[in-house]
Write a structure and sequence with these properties.
Length: 155
């Protein structure tokens, strides 16, 4: 599943924002196949690290949640709150599939701000320095913070 935002100009459709979404259960978590590539492996290790500190399934008291990766907005469309709109669009997606909540690791300040604007709350925050000290490729900088954020749709 994915969420996308398109513009249409002179009949030409252009994808300007995207969020790849996956349904995870306690029994079967993504990925079910090995992660390839150094950068994606690093991102996935960070997700695992944050979720070991605060398991979103336990926090939300749910067996199924929507996870997502790669909230991306084309540079020329940034500043128009498309990130927040894509995140808000998770609600109808989740409700249509009987999913009561979503959880995502947000690595940058812009996506964290978009998530907060869309009503997400932080359940775990880890400085880049801590991730670097645990073998991940992140700046050894306490001012860079990675956040695990959640939002419920059944309350």
């Amino acid at each position: 599943m994915s969420l996308g935002c398109y513009t249409v100009t002179n009949g030409k459709k252009t994808l300007v924002a995207l969020n790849v979404c996956v349904v995870d259960t306690i029994e079967e978590r993504v990925p079910s196949t090995p992660i390839e590539g150094v950068a994606w492996n690093n991102v996935y290790r960070a997700i695992e690290y944050l979720e070991e500190k605060c398991d979103p399934f336990k926090y939300l008291k749910l067996d199924t949640i929507l996870h997502a990766l790669g909230l991306s907005v084309l540079t020329e469309y940034r500043g128009k709150h498309l990130g927040s709109r894509i995140l808000a669009a998770r609600r109808p997606l989740c409700l249509a599939h009987g999913i009561k909540a979503t959880a995502t690791m947000f690595s940058g300040p812009a996506s964290q701000k978009s998530a907060a604007r869309a009503g997400f709350s932080t359940i775990c925050a880890v400085p880049g320095k801590e991730l670097a000290e645990n073998g991940m490729n992140f700046p050894k900088d306490d001012s860079i913070v990675i956040k695990l954020m959640v939002k419920r749709y059944d309350e």
